[in-house]
Structures are given as C-alpha cells and as structure tokens.
Amino acid sequence: MSVVPARGLMGERIVRRGRRRAQEERAWGTMTTMRVARVLTNETCNQGCGFCSARRPVERPDFVRSAAVLARIDEALAKGTREVVLTGGEPTMRRDLAALVRHARARGAERVVLETNASLVTESLARALADAGLSVARVHVPAFGPEADGITRDEGGFSAALTGARALAAAGIPLEITTPVVRNNLDLVAAIPGGVRAANLPASRLLASIPVEAPDPATLAPLEGAARALERLDQAAREAGIPLSLDPGAAIPPCSFERPARLAHLYALNPGGVNRPGHERVPACGACVVSDRCPGVPRALLARETTSAFRPLTEDRVRRKLTVISSVREQIDRELVTRDVHRAPDGRLVPSHIVRIQFQCNQACDFCFVSTHLPAPEDEAVRRAILEIAHAGGVLQVSGGEPTLNGRLHAYVALAKREGAMAVELQTNAVRLGEPGRARELEEAGLDVAFVSLHGSRAEISDMITRAPGTFEKTARGLDALAQTKIRVRLNFVFCAPNLADFPDFVRLVAARWPAAEINVSVVGAFTDLVPRTESLIPRYTDLLPVMREGLGIARAAGIPVLGFESMCGIPLCLAPVDPRGFFDLAEIPSGHDGGEFVRAEACGRCELSARCFGLRRSYAELHGTSEARAIVRGAEIG
C-alpha cells in the first residue's frame, strides 16, 4: 500500500474513534448495534484543521497497510454492519481506495460512504470510486470560499475541493456536505447552503457537527456561539432547499438553543440512548421531559461551560419532535410506504401507495406528521416500493418530507410510468420547482399530478405556518412554472387555527393566478405524537365551516373544483358544506383501513354514509367531542 505525501502535517494525537463513535451514534438513536461501522483507512491528512483529533504526523505501517484495512472491513461486516464509512485522516491519499470500496461491497456492505475533503479527488479517481460501488461521498466544507483555506491551513484547498466534489458528482456519486461548527467559522457557516446551491453542487444534505474536544481547545466554539451559528445554518439550509442534519457523534444537547422546537428535527432520541460515554447529568436534567432519552451534556463541554447554560425542556411537543420510536433504520422502513386505496367516484377501489423518497424538508409545519429528522431511504428500497405499486397498476404518490430535495425524483417518476403505474402524483411544497427546468423535467418524466401544499394567501400567514420565511414566494414561483406544463395542479390547503379566516382569500388568489388549478381541502389532524393536540392548532368544525362555505362559493363562481372532503385528511361527510348525495356513489371503506385512528359518534349509527365516511379523528374527539356529527339519510331533505 502507498499513501500520497501529505502537505503541512502536524504532530497531533489521534483519538481512536471506532468503538466510541459507534456508542455515541447509538446513543442518539441514529444506528442500531453494529449496523454502521467507521473504518479508519489511514491517519495522515493533506490539510491541517486545528480542531481535528484524528490526524497523525506519519502513518503506522502495520495500521495503514492494505491487509490491515481489509481486515477491519471484514471484521465490521462479520458483526452485522450494513454501512461501512471509510474515513481518516484523508482516505483519498490512498492509491488503493477504490479497491477498498469494491472489497466492502463484494463482502456484503449495503452502503459504502467516503468521508473526504475532496481536494485530492480527480476525475479518474471519481470514476473508479463510482465503478467500485461507492454509495455517498461526504465532503468536508468548513466554509464556502477562500476563507475555508484559513481553517484547513491548506492554501488553494477550497478550490481543489470544489473541483473534486464536482468530479464526484459528475461520476454519479451522491454528495453530502459536512460542516464543523468551530470558533473560526461561526460567522461563515450560514453562507454554506447558499454557496452550495449557487455552485450547482447536487448535495442531498448538509451534515453539521459541533466538536467539543480538540488538540487545540482554542479552536472550539463556545456553546452559545455554536448554538446561534447552528440556528443560522438551519435557516439558511431551509432557504436553499438543502436538508440539514446534526452529526450525533459531535452534538450539543437540544436544550442549548433558545427555541429548541425549531431545531428538534436535527435530533433522533430514543429511550435506549440515555447512557452515553463521556456525558454527565446537570441539575437541569432532573426536570427535563427528555431525561429518559437524552444522554446529558458532554463532559468535555462542561469543562468549558457552566451548568447554568442548560435549562430543562418542559414542553411535551418538543419531546415528541426530538424522539425516534426505535432505530432510525427500522423507522425508515416503517414510514417508507403507506398502502392506501383511492376511492373513485364510480365506486371503484384503486390501490394507491404513498412512497416517501425523502424525509427531510425545507419547511417545518407544526401539523406535519412525518419524521423529518430521518435521513433519506436507500435508493434500492425506494425502487422496490415504486415497482410494487406500478406493477399493480395503481396510483403512486411520491412524497416526503419534501421529495424535490431528492436528486433522483425525476428518475423515480419515469420508473413508475415505465413500469405501469396508472398515475403518478407528486406531493410537494413546490419551493424548488421554480428553478429553471425543474417543472419541465418532471413533465417529461411523465408526472401526472402536482399536489402542492400552500396554506395561506400571503407570506405573513404561509411563512408563519411553514416556519420557513421566504418560501411562500418560492412556492408561488413553483406553481407559476407548473402552470406552464401539462401537469395537473392541485393545491392543498390545510385548515388550522392560524389560517382559519384566510381560506376565502386563498381561493381568490388561486382564481387570479392559477385559474386552471384544483383545490384540495384538508383539516389538521393529530394522528401521530409529532402533531400538537391543542385548540391553538386544531379548530372546531363549527368554526371552520363558515369560512369553508364562503370559499366554496368563490371557487364555484370561478369554476375551480374543490376536492378532498371524503379523504382521511378531510372532514366528516355529514359536515361537508356540499350536497351529500354525491357521496353515496363512493366505494365503502375497507374494514380496518382507518387503522383505529377514527371514532364514531352516536349519530353515525343512524347515518347511511357511515360505511363511506371515516368518522371523526380520535384526537379531534378527545379535544372537541363528537356532538357536531349528524346522520345523513338517503332521500331526506337536504338543508
């Protein structure tokens, strides 16, 4: 084995991260035992970040030789590893790196990930890595621009890294951007998402880390500065439409933030993660609602910060948003596909599957029930799910999170159409569809319907609900682009307390700007623990019906169809402000299809639509009761 000579090596200690890193990641709920293994390929690097704890001045021959690395890969796979992460040092200094990737795949690794600064990556190396089966390249970017060179102590390194990252992308290797938050880049990290987007790097996500130990402690960021920088980075990532994750092996506790709920999507806690090496409890932990799943505060951080910097989390809503039910992989498998049926107006039942190709999102609606902290599912799993519904001749609903954040979206749409799907619908906020060519690309792939979430008639309302300032205008531009295609557009307005009075103005906006679109009405529902069960979010039907009725009148006059009453996310059919006789031709709901999520009122026992209506959502009944329901009898006078 030979290693490319390093530039500017420093005599710094190495921290053996294999076993400790696995313990750390399991504690934050991001892996199950021995599912992910980090394999050190070498211990030298061509850059010199002062906060790096993994670099040595020279290689240890016995450790770096090819046979030793192959043995470490084999050992990890023998223990059940599904994902091998090749890291260093700088792995691209090895001349046999592609052979290591090929070996890991040949021995059964489902994914092989490379962590690299990319500054040594050439087009030929990128092609070799792609041919060997590399799944993802995580490219280290501490700042976007020449300022990065001051952090890495590698003059010209950023330009070289950008060239290398482009070579990896051109070879078809998915990119992720890794960003440490340290003292020298606190004011720089927020510019990274916009820089990545402006450079047309197809990054599927940003992975931030907050080191708490370093050979030079002066390079570490103070807790408050790191928390504020991460908040700015999160906002910038939303605006750029790039999902942000937090490296569980280098994280600060969620109580570090001024508004923990806004950053909760970065965490994935579970009760098994309470015991984590190198962490301690502080007095605030005693009253914290996540004390049974949060490992506490890194001991190294406590050496630099007072315990008063931490405060207990007390809101159950925050606990729900921070929590993952089981392992990340198992939760992805559980949420990847929702098998549904479409009830056609003529009484037919058509299989309809929701396939979530992306869990992360560039918005953060309070009523979203998706586990947006999860990473994207495996490409192979997505394709299997698509083929299942396509071969059944059913309807594919491509969803998320925000599916337009997945670079394979158009390929998935084309696959479904090619393999026999009756129709393909995209559930999206359309924030990225205003980018040049995106909507047209989906039209060419065969997309039939764009189901676009827009929950207000103006930015003040919409951006408050989505908690993503600036995205109302981007969604509007995305809808403008869709209107120039043959894709059928259906706007989804979710009734919730904050937008209750806005529906009539929303309909007026649609009529004026997108007159060929349809409107789908939904009502917020707390059918997972991620959604708050409060009157400040979930309105009574009695309160929303007058504005719904007013909006329907405006839509009727403008010739805009309004749909969705009969869906699981709609409204009890007896309360829908339309002629209920149109619901009698609906197919009956298959037994058990509601998953026990709905309840029946006393009036439902006398209603002739009961077999075609879901009833009232259980969480709604617990909050507001069931007295609003009424029986519909065929042939009775309709009021």
Automatic annotation (TrEMBL):
Domain (Radical SAM core) ranges: 31-243, 347-555
GO MF annotation terms: catalytic activity; iron-sulfur cluster binding; metal ion binding
Cofactors that this protein relies on: [4Fe-4S] cluster
Domain of life: Bacteria
InterPro entries noted in UniProt: Aldolase_TIM, Elp3/MiaA/NifB-like_rSAM, Radical_SAM_PqqE_MftC-like, rSAM, rSAM_sf
Keyword S-adenosyl-L-methionine: yes
DNA repair listed as a keyword: no
Pfam families in UniProt: Radical_SAM
Keywords, comma-separated and alphabetical: Iron, Iron-sulfur, Metal-binding, S-adenosyl-L-methionine
Cited PANTHER family: PQQA PEPTIDE CYCLASE (PTHR11228:SF7), RADICAL SAM DOMAIN PROTEIN (PTHR11228)
Protein name, entry field: Radical SAM protein
The species this protein was found in: Polyangium fumosum
Organism lineage string: Bacteria, Pseudomonadati, Myxococcota, Polyangia, Polyangiales
